[in-house]
Amino acid sequence: MFIKKKVELLILATLLVTCHGFTEQSHAGIADLKAKPQLQQAFESIIDEEQQNEADLIRLTEIPAPPFMEEERAKHFAAMLKASGADDVQIDSVGNVIATIKGSIGLKTVAVSAHLDTVFPPDTLIKVRREGNRLIAPGIGDNTRGLIMVNALMKAIRAAQIKMQANVLLVGTVGEEGLGDLRGVKHLFRDDAPGIDSFIAIDGSNPEKVVTSGVGSNRYRVTFTGPGGHSWRAFGHANPHHALGHAISFLDKIGPSVTDEGEKSAYNIGRIGGGTSINSIPFASWMEVDIRSGSRERLDKLDTVFKQAVQQALLTENSARKYGPELRVEIKKVGERPAAKGKTDFNLVQNMLEINDSFGYKTNLRAGSTDSSIPISKGIPAVTISRGGKGGEAHSLEEWWENDKGYEGIQIALLLLVAEAGLAE
Ligand SMILES: [Zn+2]
What we know:
The protein is of the alpha+beta class and 425 residues long. The protein folds into two domains: 24-215 and 339-421, Zn peptidases (Aminopeptidase, 3-Layer(aba) Sandwich), CATH 3.40.630; 216-337, Alpha-Beta Plaits, CATH 3.30.70.360. 39% of the residues lie in helices and 23% in strands. The chain has 13 helices and 18 strands. It has a six-stranded mixed β-sheet with strand order 1-2-6-3-7-16. It has a four-stranded antiparallel β-sheet with strand order 4-5-18-17, covered by helices on one side. It starts with a helix and ends with a helix. Residues 1-23 have low confidence and may be disordered.
């Protein structure tokens, strides 16, 4: 009875798939799909929109989106998607912008996303300047161009009246950078969320580099605290800044025992601060630390070594003090991204290889720290692909983006999306 039931279910499942003809584009079908009149029409419309896309890029770049302050840009991005023909655009409870395109069958959901936030603090002057073919401004490539690509997909889908079988979400996520800790994408994949079955993130500057694995990271804020005091009268008190210095020095001594071998791992002290004046022993000294690896095992080892360095520093500074209370240290975790290896035999990945090939690009599958890390860690097909064009100096004030065949990046993303969501007949 039980076995019979199982067989029946299996037949039913097979029928569901075949009756609707609902399958992702197979590896071999990419060339056929690319040649379809609708796709060709969409490809042309993408080229026609080049100038408008550039104007949109400049406009959106100049709306700042510092970590945890993405609302303004989110509103503009939502309006942009509406103007491009999206009829259902929402901003969810954490601030993600989500345009929903209902599928003809709707048994599965494919999301394409780019992150809204930049790494730049609110007081950064953001004015796009042009030098030759280059557009220069903080955040112009990473990831404002990614958002423009998502919007360009909406326009192309409408221009060529492309209908897909799966539901499609076009998304602008919050919190991809820095201490945002992927909170936007974590929300999309929270336990009680409506499911997303495959995920395409746009966030990279080289079309040949496709992210299919997640580099894991642990992020900490370490704070040494003590009594402080006058630099002259209280000389001999334990000094939090000195302890912090020891910690960095110890980490540099023992960190390489992990980072010099095996799969790549890395550590970085990104920010330090504390203290009140040049002639005061500080009450507190803090640093923000980022530890990374594509391998969970190496990440754990590096984590242990980092904590040892901090404890050793505390001990060293406390033993060196002449009098006064001991320093204390707090190691607070402020971010965690999973290290995860994605399967490369997913249709999504195989299609991406085929598509890149058809545009004359080689593909280098790699690990990265992007929005895709979350679906990858849950075993859901996910890739992070390039924003098209050329770019450089990301995360710096001199960041640039150049429209060198930028339309190709959009065409590649569209083809990948339609292959995954299935073209409705
Ligand atoms: Zn980015």
